[in-house]
Amino acid sequence: MTLFETLKERCRPEWEAYTRHEFVEELGLGTLPLPVFRDYLIQDFHFLVQFARANALATFKSRTLADITAAHEATGAILAETRLHLRLTERWGIPRAELDTAAEKQATVAYTRYVLDCGMVGDLLDLHVALAPCTIGYAEIGSRLQPRIGEYGGEGGAGEGGAGEGGAGEHPYGEWIAEYSGEEFTAASRAAIAQLDELAADGLTERRLAELTEVFRTATRLEADFWQQALDSAESR
Q1: pTM of the predicted model, to two decimals?
Q2: I need a labelling partner for 163 at 20 to 30 A (CA). Which of 69, 92, 129, 236 fits?
Q3: pLDDT of 160
Q4: What is the 3-state secondary structure (H, E, C) of the chain?
Q5: Which residues are designated catalytic?
């Protein structure tokens, strides 16, 4: 069993609450209100900026060329991810200036700064465990939702606000799902799982595993809070 699988099993309720959150399920069905998705995209843009910083910190924390290379590749993957967000936000009428000037919301700050703090006070393994729910979890979510693209019937698509630029019968969030179920992101997820095992190759005491479990559990809870923040935005309108 990989370290990731061990951590996921130890945090099964939190993992299920995150990967099967109401936001995720509605997104997969195509019924997520578009204003909620827009709010998520704006906050996720800020999220990715901070995660790029976290991977830059991983470069600093690295002691081997292999780890430096992995951090460099992860940063590149995040920058590629931001290009998806810029395409989606532009298509749905969110100017780049609005992305840059929008304030980070509470759940965004809480999650991203927690990850950075884990990297600052801990070692490289602490940082990658804190990153894992995002890096690996999104690939798992994308893979599970991918069949929904073909199954989508176009009924009630995207709820309030319409389905953006997608044609009739097209899944309104198909591009997002395709990104995270695609080979590039899936490969990055596999690399993240392998790196966790490499960083823990010398063995973990039960105390150290318990510490990493709490890091993973907290980061996973904060991921769920990030979804919920977007859903809550509908109630504040």
Answers
A1: 0.88
A2: 236
A3: 45
A4: CCHHHHHHHHCHHHHHHHHCCHHHHHHHHCCCCHHHHHHHHHHHHHHHHHHHHHHHHHHHHCCCHHHHHHHHHHHHHHHHHHHHHHHHHHHCCCCHHHHHHCCCCHHHHHHHHHHHHHHHHCCHHHHHHHHHHHHCHHHHHHHHHHHHHHHCCCCCCCCCCCCCCCCCCCCCCHHHHHHHHCHHHHHHHHHHHHHHHHHCCCCCCHHHHHHHHHHHHHHHHHHHHHHHHHHHHHHCC
A5: 134, 223
The answer on pLDDT for 209 being more than 80 is yes
- Decide if pLDDT at 197 tops 90: yes
Structure tokens at 139: 């690939």
Task: Give the pLDDT confidence score for residue 99 in this predicted structure.
Answer: 86
Q: Is the pLDDT of residue 23 over 80?
A: yes
**Alpha carbon distance 14, 137 (integer Å):** 12
Record the tokens describing residue 67, joined without a space.
Answer: 């780890």
- Could you give the C-alpha distances from 111 to 26, 133, 155, in angstroms and in order? 22, 11, 34
* pLDDT confidence band for 163 (50 / 70 / 90): very low
Nearest to 75 by CA among 117, 131, 8: 131
Which of 137, 140, 144 is CA-nearest to residue 29?
144
